[in-house]
Design brief:
Blueprint lengths: L2 H20 L1 E7 L3 H11 L5 E5 L19 H4 L4 H17 L5 E9 L7 H15 L4 E5 H7 L10 E9 L2 H14 L3 E4 L1 E9 L2 E9 L7 E11 L5 H5 L8 E12 L8 E5 L6 E7 L2 E5 L3 E2 L12 H14 L12 E10 L13 E6 L2 E6 L5 H16 L23 H11 L3 H5 L17 H10 L5 H8 L2 H4 L8 H12 L3 H18 L10
Parallel strand pairs: 1-2, 1-9, 2-6, 3-11, 9-17
Antiparallel strand pairs: 3-5, 4-5, 7-8, 8-9, 10-13, 10-14, 10-15, 11-12, 12-13, 16-17
Helix pairs in contact: 2-7, 2-10, 13-16
């Protein structure tokens, strides 16, 4: 990447901030996760003037720490959440059709054993309904021999067979980037590391927000005016709603995951496990060259201002489920190369069991502040359209819900790149895939050892994807921080050579960022020491 490209990148954030503060927007979106990204996309494609701000990095919160599944929510059927499941199944299929490289089919397997839930017949009934909602049959029952072939090493007393079915998976942080990319193409302005500090009201109605650039040490604020302000800040929504007297609405629930090398837990499809202690569903599946184990579902009592972390008890809980079904593996905490925890913004219904709390979304207008919260990653488009319908009268523009595409088609790529590389670039960059592929230098289309990540992805992220800190680059634009031991620090020399020129960081800045990144990895992405003593 040349000096001119780097110079343009350096001035781009300043240009975005200048436009942010000098425009009266139709819509100002607060929150840069998948909900906010969906709002910006849906508004921009309708010709609304829309800006989005995020107090940390895009997808910093729940939207980079999910289970990575784009699913219909099979387990919600037994809770009677039929509407949520129907919308989720249809949205899942729509996303798979529009971005098949990014949202990929993922097969699941659930063992059938006496005394273990769910039993074969109740699961079969649920899946029949699930398939009917999707408009296609995607489940089957296999005998014991086939089940053991599909999940080598599974040893359960009385195993009779297994049920298989289909859902989907993605890279959640890259999904956010793709949606934001589409929004920007249609004119949206998106800026990370900008915090909403105070709501501006006129005659009791919210008409704007005071914002602070988190990259400036002086903490000064500037005002932004908008015809409608949408609060899409996830688990932080209640904090912003307090400015208009809103009562707490959310129940923050923590979901934690472990990442282990694929060779240590080799699997071709997801295996869904009933935990031996409480019967909760735990799963593991292949993801980005590793194997992902999840998830817990616990009330999160910690301060939301602090980054969430897995606890030693959660580590033990997840490993117990795997070792119960696959005793020969004898997985231990030391086998995990990384871990992560996210906090889900679940609407509080005062349910005692976190796993039974509803996952439907809520949209409300409080003194002109539109809040959308709850819901699931899969239904982000539906959530966005519901919020925009409520905001439209304030904006003064007509609004009609439709089935318009979220994603533009990916640009065709040369065949000589090979299927794996074409698939990878199309998934991450969509309509910009050819533009970025043409910039590849020798060796950059090879994967980082032990992952599916191409070296090119690091340089593209550094030059074009609003990276302000090293953790933006290694935890969200790429996922090397959770795919490699020590957060990928063993490859730091090559990463530096690829990215430092594009980032325009001098040596002192680079060292500061490395220290910051190391602190984050040690505190939140390594298995806590307490787990080793269990």
């Amino acid at each position: 990447m040349g000096a001119l490209d780097a110079s343009l990148r350096a001035s781009e954030r300043a240009n975005r901030l200048e436009r942010l503060f000098s425009t009266v927007w139709d819509l100002l979106v607060i929150g840069g996760g998948i909900t906010g990204a969906g709002l910006a996309r849906e508004a921009a494609r309708r010709g609304w003037q829309v800006a989005l701000i995020e107090q940390h990095d895009f997808a910093w919160g729940t939207s980079s720490r999910s289970s990575k599944l784009v699913h219909g929510g099979l387990r919600y059927l037994k809770e009677g959440q039929f509407g949520l499941t129907l919308h989720s199944v249809r949205e899942r299929q729509r996303l798979m059709d529009q971005a098949p490289e990014l949202i990929e089919p993922q097969s699941f397997l659930m063992a059938d054993c006496p005394g273990r839930k769910p039993d074969r017949w109740s699961l079969s009934i649920g899946l029949a309904l699930y398939d009917r909602m999707a408009g296609r049959r995607q489940h089957a029952y296999v005998d014991r021999i086939a089940a053991e072939m599909l999940a080598p090493g599974m040893r359960l007393a009385g195993l009779r067979g297994a049920t298989t079915f289909l859902d989907a998976k993605t890279d959640d942080a890259r999904l956010v980037q793709r949606v934001l990319m589409e929004a920007e193409r249609d004119g949206a302005v998106v800026v990370n590391y900008v915090c909403a500090t105070e709501l501006i009201r006129d005659q009791g109605q919210v008409v704007g927000v005071s914002l602070s650039d988190m990259e400036k040490a002086d903490g000064t604020s500037s005002e932004v005016r908008a015809r409608a302000v949408v609060n899409a800040s996830g688990v932080w929504s209640d904090t912003l709603r307090a400015g208009v007297g809103g009562k707490p609405l959310l129940r923050p629930l923590r979901g934690s995951h472990l990442v282990v090398p694929w060779w240590r837990l080799p699997v071709a499809q997801s295996v869904s496990l009933a935990h031996p202690k409480d019967g909760r569903s735990v799963f593991f599946y292949p993801w980005e060259g590793a194997t992902l184990i999840g998830t817990t579902d616990l009330d999160h009592q910690d301060d939301l201002a602090n980054e969430a972390s897995i606890t030693p008890d959660e580590v033990v809980y997840l490993l117990e489920a795997v070792n119960d079904h696959f005793p020969g593996l004898s997985l231990k905490p030391a086998d995990a190369v990384a871990c992560y925890a996210g906090v889900r913004p679940v609407v509080d219904d005062s349910s005692g069991d976190p796993s039974k709390a509803p996952r439907e979304h809520v949209v409300l207008n409080e003194s002109g502040l539109i809040t959308v919260c709850g819901g699931k990653l899969t239904t982000f488009r539906t959530m966005a359209q519901d919020a925009l319908a409520l905001a439209a009268p304030q904006v003064g523009k007509p609004f009609r819900k439709d089935q318009g595409a979220v994603f533009s088609p990916a640009t065709p790529l040369p065949w000589h790149l090979g299927r794996r590389v074409r698939h990878r670039l199309a998934a991450r960059y969509g309509f910009k895939a050819r533009q970025y592929a043409d910039q590849a230098e020798p060796g950059e289309l090879e994967p980082v050892p032990g992952t599916h990540t191409l070296w090119l992805e690091l340089r593209i992220a550094a030059g074009f994807e609003n990276v302000l800190h090293l953790d933006d680059l290694l935890l969200r634009r790429t996922r090397l921080g959770i795919l490699l031991p020590r957060g990928g620090l063993d490859y730091l020399a090559r990463i530096r050579a690829l990215c430092q020129p594009a980032l325009r960081w001098d040596d002192a800045k680079w060292q500061t960022e490395v220290q910051r990144y190391q602190t984050i990895i040690d505190a939140h992405y390594r298995v806590p020491r307490g787990a080793y003593a269990r």
